């Protein structure tokens, strides 16, 4: 098979946010527990049809398939090895394995085994002469481990020539010198990989990886709260009245002590995330330039582009414990705790003076309730607002890479518009996203970006795949 030149592409397909994870077993007593993760909602066969469709659409021409981040969801894998060669802590048993080489290798094995249909389709696609580029996102940040990348290529069962048709890019890729492709988490302070050029940190006798705050929260909190779907923000970012209604409608019988699950998970998240911000990345001073050169070659860019794009990354939210505490609702928990202690002390003093019933303590508690509700309502989550890159980032990215088109993922929201001179697209998602716990209100996007020849250039369109064919959406196919 003739090897392709990665710097040139005639046809390019871009998908993101598939969130392939392990299959969740059906729980007889509580069938809604992580129902979105069950095999019922696997779309592997649809993705294979999608690959077949792309090959028909290109009329035999070679295709560049960009898997643009969060293809695998390491954060939601809860499986544990039967006979581990490493010590599994109590926290790992509760919330999943830590991001270390041997543990991440086990997790990708679990995912690949459960998605054999998907991987066989990808294998056939590569064997037909097409190429695949993995751009690392935030939920599959463990793809940085060489052991994980090797496990994927081994599972595909390709020969040596075919293995060269696969690339793993740290956070961006430039297609045909006209399109910059990034997952987009680098501009989100809650999901940014702090140093994708040097993502590893040294622990005591082990190598690990810095996780963004969003990843830690998914592991330590959402993995223990199975009625919340992490693929749709509105499923877990709610107001206090919405949380209360949700609790009594779905959770009270199955998980009556949910508040405790949230509280200790939030504390661990805060501690873990802040501790990670203090970790120093592993760097070999003699190999820094080699590392930059390696990234630039894989991404079809230059060392200068790598350095300049890295400067655009957001400041990690991990560095601000107060901000994290607000996002985790720990500030509101602290207010309740302080109020309880103060009122208890006052009641003890009054009780020592006169035999006063402790039932009187409810009066100041109820008196404080309006102020507490007012404060809670005034605090809004910033998680969703930071996900979409702003106009300044788009303009600077375009100038740095000398491209007129930028494609992101990460937000799960489709977009196609001109922002100044830059064509901006967001490929949406394929993840099992539902607006309800019963998994009846599916977002079901299965959208992708398709770039094809147009006159002497290429044009991009945002499309949706359905019923073994696709159609253009948003009606904004623009040639640049």
Note the topology.
Elements: E1 11-15, H1 44-57, E2 63-68, H2 90-95, H3 101-114, H4 116-127, E3 131-135, H5 146-156, H6 160-163, E4 166-169, E5 172-175, E6 179-182, E7 200-203, E8 206-209, H7 213-220, H8 240-251, H9 258-278, H10 288-298, H11 303-310, H12 321-327, H13 330-353, H14 362-378, H15 391-401, E9 405-408, E10 415-419, E11 422-426, E12 447-454, E13 457-466, E14 469-472, E15 478-479
Parallel strand pairs: 1-2, 2-3, 3-4, 6-9, 9-11
Antiparallel strand pairs: 1-12, 5-6, 7-8, 10-11, 12-13, 13-14, 13-15
If you had to describe this structure to a student in words, what would you say it looks like?
This protein is of the alpha/beta class and 480 residues long. It folds into two domains: 414 residues, no CATH class; 50 residues, no CATH class. It contains 15 helices and 15 strands. Strands 1, 2, 3, 4, 12, 13, 14 and 15 form an eight-stranded mixed beta sheet that branches. Strands 5-6-9-11-10 form a five-stranded mixed beta sheet, covered by helices on one side. Strands 7-8 form a two-stranded antiparallel ribbon. A hairpin with a 2-residue loop joins strand 13 and strand 14. Helix 3 runs parallel beside helix 5 and helix 7 runs antiparallel to helix 9. The longest helix has 24 residues. It starts with 10 loop residues before the first strand and ends with a strand. 38% of the residues are buried. The C terminus is likely disordered.
Assembly form of the protein: single chain
Specify the structural class. alpha/beta
Straight-line distance between termini? 32 Å
Could you tell me the radius of gyration in angstroms? 24 Å
Name the average pLDDT.
87
How many structural domains does the protein architecture include? 2
- Say how many strands there are: 15
The fraction of residues assigned to DSSP E strands is 15-25%
Number of helices: 15
Low-confidence sequence ranges: 476-480
Task: Write the element-wise H/E pattern from the N-terminal end onward.
Answer: EHEHHHEHHEEEEEHHHHHHHHHEEEEEEE
- The helix content is 25-40%
Shape: globular
Describe the main β-sheet briefly.
8 strands, mixed
């Amino acid at each position: 098979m003739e090897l392709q030149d990665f710097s040139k592409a005639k046809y390019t397909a871009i998908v993101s946010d598939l969130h392939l994870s392990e299959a969740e077993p059906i729980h007889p007593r509580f069938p809604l527990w992580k129902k979105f993760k069950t095999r019922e909602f696997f779309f592997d066969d649809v993705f294979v049809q999608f690959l077949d469709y792309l090959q028909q659409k290109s009329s035999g021409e070679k295709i560049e398939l960009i898997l643009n981040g969060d293809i695998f969801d390491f954060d939601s894998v809860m499986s544990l090895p039967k006979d581990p060669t490493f010590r599994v802590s109590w926290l790992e048993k509760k919330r999943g394995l830590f991001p270390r080489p041997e543990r991440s290798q086990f997790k990708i094995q679990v995912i690949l085994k459960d998605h054999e249909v998907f991987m066989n389709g990808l294998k056939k696609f590569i064997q037909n002469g097409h190429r695949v580029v993995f751009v690392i996102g935030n939920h599959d940040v463990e793809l940085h481990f060489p052991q994980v990348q090797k496990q994927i290529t081994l599972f595909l069962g390709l020969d040596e020539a075919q293995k060269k048709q696969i690339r793993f890019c740290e956070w961006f890729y430039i297609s045909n010198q006209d399109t910059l492709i990034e997952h987009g988490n680098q501009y989100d302070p809650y999901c940014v990989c702090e140093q994708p050029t040097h993502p590893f940190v040294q622990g005591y006798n082990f190598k690990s990886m810095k996780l963004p705050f969003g990843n830690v929260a998914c592991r330590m909190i959402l993995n223990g709260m199975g009625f919340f779907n992490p693929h749709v923000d509105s499923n877990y970012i709610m107001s206090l009245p919405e949380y209360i209604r949700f609790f009594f409608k779905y959770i009270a019988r199955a998980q009556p002590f949910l508040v405790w699950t949230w509280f200790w998970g939030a504390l661990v998240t805060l501690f873990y995330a802040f501790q990670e911000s203090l970790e120093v990345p592993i760097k070999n001073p003699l190999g820094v330039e080699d590392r930059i050169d390696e990234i630039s070659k894989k991404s079809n860019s230059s060392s200068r582009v790598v350095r300049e794009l890295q400067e655009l990354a957001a400041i990690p939210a991990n560095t601000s414990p107060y901000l994290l505490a607000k996002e985790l609702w720990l500030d509101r928990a602290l207010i309740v705790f302080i109020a309880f202690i103060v009122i208890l002390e006052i009641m003890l003093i009054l009780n020592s003076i006169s035999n006063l019933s402790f039932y009187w303590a409810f009066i100041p508690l109820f008196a404080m309730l309006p102020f507490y509700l007012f404060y809670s309502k005034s605090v809004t989550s910033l998680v969703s607002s930071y996900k979409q890159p702003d106009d300044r980032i788009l303009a600077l990215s375009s100038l740095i890479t000398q491209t007129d088109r930028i494609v992101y993922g990460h937000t799960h929201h489709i977009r196609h518009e001109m922002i100044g001179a830059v064509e901006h697209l967001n490929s949406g998602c394929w993840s099992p996203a539902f607006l309800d716990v019963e998994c009846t209100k599916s977002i079901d996007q299965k959208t992708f970006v398709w770039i094809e020849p147009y006159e002497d250039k290429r044009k991009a369109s945002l499309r949706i795949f359905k019923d073994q064919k696709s159609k253009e959406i948003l009606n904004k196919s623009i040639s640049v």
